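quick q for whoever's on today - can somebody do inverse folding on this one?? i tried earlier but teh output was garbage lol. tokens:
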């Protein structure tokens, strides 16, 4: 028999010889990518399967139709390979045939086994490495059915929560990568995330937080009228003073009232306050570059290129051009204050204390397209890919279909919050909610969201959350900010 084992470098030193039968563990099998394709002559270096790779079985029957252009020799070897059908991560190879005198290479393996191997690898590795072995693998791992099957086997609930308006444009590969990254991160909080509390120099409840620069900077607005900017990259468990030293900017009189909403576009930060003012700040220098004013307190906002949209206490939706003085437009669609607001290229969606969600065409500001009445008034919103997720005063979460110029209530969920849902974030990879019950819940982004983890480190009501690139910031009424940050040795 062949000698097998793992050398002192942690790599497999399995060798194959023409004996009877050898059973190989997939995570110890040193697979040598090899390609006879003229398009990829440079791919000939060894590549080992990484330890701890993710995955389960993939339905190979979906891929029988793929023409992978096997060589005659590869096809003849197919009959000598047998993949264990009991969920084991081992392969049983019959080595009695002369066909196995040479070393096993990836392009000679039957495609059922390639798919089985791929099920033990995370999707980023498949895309960045395995799909580049040869043109046949590129075809195999760029097939949309592979990624659909991979998602549905791991998370069988309906996904996406609503069918894509244009199924041809939905990126299943990117969705699978994001789902795996988020699930791996949030299902292993103790191993993959560090938790920090920023409270230095805060003298009032924190009502709003906003991550910028791909999660590297965090803007914090509070009832003490302070605007703070934190450098999240400086937070480290090795330095106990980092939650203090991470503050790189502090403006103690940024507004004359509570800072209630923060947003950004490109390198410009915006702050909206109960003093009725919106201020725009240059991020690199944190100098104020412009100011606009409404007739009432600014409670929510959306910021895009050359346009700032605000929901106010006086029931109006204001639109401003940050480069100009004055108001571009002011429209009233509710009977009470507007508490939350989101927008896309065509529509603006607002939630009000009158317990309605309004959905209207921003190109024709006088025409309300649709209104949806809820039992409890909405307090937070998130919009992505036609899905409008709403958190309400009673602790429920609602899914509304906003994909086709309409607004339809699809389903209402009890995700476990006992009080107001003050923040909600939906992405293709994860759904995150926060509440005045002092908890943050991380859920699967399915039609029926399953709980991944319940975060309970916050000791006071959570007023808002911001999430980007593995960093989750939580605004707290307890005059502090809770920050979950992916560990530096686990950057993906």
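ok took a stab at it. sequence:
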């Amino acid at each position: 028999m062949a000698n097998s084992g793992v050398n002192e470098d942690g790599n497999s030193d399995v060798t194959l010889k023409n004996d009877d039968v050898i059973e190989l563990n997939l995570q110890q099998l040193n697979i040598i990518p090899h390609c006879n394709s003229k398009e990829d002559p440079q791919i000939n270096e060894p590549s080992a399967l990484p330890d701890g790779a993710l995955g389960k079985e993939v339905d190979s029957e979906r891929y029988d139709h793929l023409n992978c252009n096997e060589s005659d020799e590869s096809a003849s070897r197919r009959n000598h390979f047998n993949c264990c059908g009991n969920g084991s991560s081992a392969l049983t190879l019959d080595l009695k045939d002369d066909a196995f005198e040479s070393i096993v290479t990836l392009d000679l393996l039957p495609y059922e086994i390639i798919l089985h191997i791929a099920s033990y690898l995370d999707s980023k590795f498949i895309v960045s490495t395995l799909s580049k072995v040869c043109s046949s693998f590129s075809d195999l791992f760029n097939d949309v059915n592979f990624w659909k099957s991979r998602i549905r086997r791991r998370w069988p609930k309906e996904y996406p929560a609503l069918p894509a308006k244009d199924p041809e444009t939905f990126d299943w590969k990117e969705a699978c990568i994001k789902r795996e990254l988020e699930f791996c991160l949030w299902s292993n909080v103790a191993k993959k995330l560090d938790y920090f509390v920023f409270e230095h120099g805060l003298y009032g409840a924190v009502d709003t937080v906003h991550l910028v620069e791909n999660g590297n900077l965090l803007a914090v607005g509070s009832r003490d009228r302070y605007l703070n900017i934190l450098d999240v990259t400086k937070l480290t468990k090795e330095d106990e003073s980092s939650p203090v030293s991470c503050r790189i900017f502090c403006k103690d009189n940024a507004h004359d009232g509570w800072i209630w909403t923060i947003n950004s576009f490109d390198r410009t930060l915006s702050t909206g306050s109960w003093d009725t003012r919106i201020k725009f700040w240059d991020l690199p220098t944190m100098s104020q570059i412009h100011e606009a004013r409404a007739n009432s307190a600014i409670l929510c906002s959306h910021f895009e290129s050359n346009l700032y949209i605000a929901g106010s206490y006086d029931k109006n939706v204001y639109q401003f051009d940050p480069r100009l003085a004055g108001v571009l437009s002011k429209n009233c669609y509710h009977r009470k204050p507007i508490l939350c607001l989101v927008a896309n290229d065509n529509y603006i969606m607002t939630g009000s204390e009158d317990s309605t969600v309004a959905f209207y065409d921003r190109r024709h500001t006088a025409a309300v397209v649709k209104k949806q009445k809820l039992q409890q008034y909405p307090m937070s919103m998130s919009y992505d890919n036609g899905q409008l997720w709403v958190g309400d005063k009673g602790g429920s979460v609602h899914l509304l279909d906003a994909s086709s110029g309409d607004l339809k209530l699809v389903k209402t969920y009890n995700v476990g919050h006992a009080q107001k849902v003050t923040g909600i974030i939906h992405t293709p990879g994860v759904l995150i909610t926060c509440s005045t019950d002092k908890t943050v819940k991380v859920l699967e982004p399915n039609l029926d969201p399953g709980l991944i983890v319940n975060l309970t480190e916050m000791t006071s009501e959570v007023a808002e959350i911001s999430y980007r690139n593995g960093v989750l910031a939580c605004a707290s009424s307890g005059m502090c900010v809770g920050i979950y940050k992916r560990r530096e040795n686990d950057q993906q």
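fwiw The helical segments are 72-78, 111-118, 123-128, 135-141, 144-154, 172-186, 189-192, 242-245. also The radius of gyration is 27 Å. so keep that in mind when u check it
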